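In the previous chapter we treated chains in isolation. Here, by contrast, the input contains two separate entities that must be folded as one system, with a combined length of 224 residues.
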Amino acid sequence: GQQVMQIPQYQHVQEGEDFTTYCNSSTTLSNIQWYKQRPGGHPVFLIQLVKSGEVKKQKRLTFQFGEAKKNSSLHITATQTTDVGTYFCAGPNTGGFKTIFGAGTRLFVKA
Amino acid sequence: DVKVTQSSRYLVKRTGEKVFLECVQDMDHENMFWYRQDPGLGLRLIYFSYDVKMKEKGDIPEGYSVSREKKERFSLILESASTNQTSMYLCASSFNGGVGELFFGEGSRLTVL
């Protein structure tokens, strides 16, 4: 079946270092979404990318959607302790009725 | 402010018990979802509903059932809880199915002894 794979599973960084998580889908996606889940919290929507090759920025976060619309990345510049949590990518299934999530990348930031 | 409310944050049940997890949303969304979250496995879809009284199986429906009698309420039912159903359960709703933003509840952490 349709799968969304995400790497790495964990990432430990020193505060101030950059961080990137990568997402790959087994099928072409109409859009890709990114969510953040703080420790003990629930996933919260960050952004949605729709166009092939699209790049969007939110302050220190840069999101990219691949040309083939099968992969995506989230890059955080100069991490801060407030960035800790798990970042999930997600995309709709072929029929568009449900959202399939990657396993997530858990980010640890050492002050 | 949009809100998805799950009835219980923490539950402890015994093997074989019937368990109800309730979810209510106040955004008039058509679509509602139940996911379970386990370490290293991400969020896996159990069931979803795109209309009142409609339900569709997700990727891991075995051992679960759902009920959607009203638009704002989506219930997850474990007919006979088992220890492998110990997990975090997350309810979500959206305006336009799998192509739009999901709004999640706080989650219900279920422990089955």
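Chain B touches chain A at residues 31, 33, 35, 40-45, 48, 50, 56, 58-59, 90, 94, 97-107 (CB under 8 Å). The mean pLDDT of chain B is 93. Compare these points with the single-chain example from earlier in the chapter.
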